[in-house]
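Each lists sequence, tokenised fold; shown next:
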Amino acid sequence: MMSASCTLLGDVFKRRRARLLVWGAMVSLAFGCVRAEWPMHRGGPRLDGYAAMDAGAVPQLGWRFSAGKPIKGGAAIARGKVYVGDDAGVFHALSLKDGSEIWSAKTQGPIEATPLVVGPLVYIGSVDGKLYAFDTENGDVRWVYETGDKIMGGANVADAPDGSGQWILFGSYDSSLHCVDASSGKLMWTCNTDNYINGTPALLPRGEIIFGGCDALLRIIDLKDGTQLRQIEADAYVASSVAIAEDGSAYVGHYGNVVLGMDIANAKVLWTYRDRAFPYLSSAAICGDRLVIGGNDKRVHCIALADGHGIWQFSTRGKVDASPVICKDTVVVGSQDGRLYGIALLDGAERWVYDIGAPIVASAAASDGWIVVGAEDGSLYALKTLKKE
């Protein structure tokens, strides 16, 4: 399991890992992959933004792929391929080894969502309001599901409660969370809300799902039929995805300039982190007893999970709307100042900076020694990490 490498930060890491070891194993089996890959938004169904690889040393450019249009969404990495969409609505499948294009497909609108890879299919939502299922080998369209408005966030996957297969879960600007069959695209259920849904729904223990939206609510719903079970008032737009810790607690930042720590079982806010009056569009990454999140204040914030107190802050020269990735004990995050940063999780010290030279709003993907991130200059950068000396 991923948190084993975080024990350098304290014994609490082991305790958190032990609490839901069984559930974590079930999620891994349901997803059909190991967390060494990065097959979806934030890396896995809990959306915790953790990668089991070292990124402490200065990375080197392995390859660069020019899409020609800005890349605002994160990439997915699975079985030696990289998948990413661009602002022209083109969906690309590339070789992880050298960045050569294997196939591409066109949607009818820009792509800002992160792809989801499950078995032989890769799923991507587009601003054209459709979710596409492509064959990972050749890019053939298996099915298309149409919503009533644009899709901005990545999809998640869960085993169907009756064991009949897998379901794909995603939000839309039609103010609904949609659940469709993974193999056919058949609608299973929808959960209606009162405003747009930007983020990716996260999987919780006990067959539950949590997501936020522009109706300023965090909704906990039943995977079985989409029925709402509980809700938490956020008091501001939620444009990001909720990150889930191994003990089932949840964390999210929003437009109200705060980060929330939440008890999902009892549907209540445990603590509120407030620093300055700037919103959080970034999703949090979690490792052990702390979370890391980017802010519009041009800073990266590290916060204690237990009580929400600030541990450290790291300043950049631009807004940090990209979501951080924790690679063992290094935080990797891009900024609109055009730089990708490697930051020590322990104390917030700068470990390295890679100057891309164009604003970064896409979240990085990390897998098998690679860090892959898109930029506003229309290029996808694949950096190869080295072992720390």
Q: What stands out?
A: The helical segments are 12-19, 21-31. Residues 21-31 form the longest helix (11 residues). Residues 1-35 have pLDDT under 50 and may be disordered.
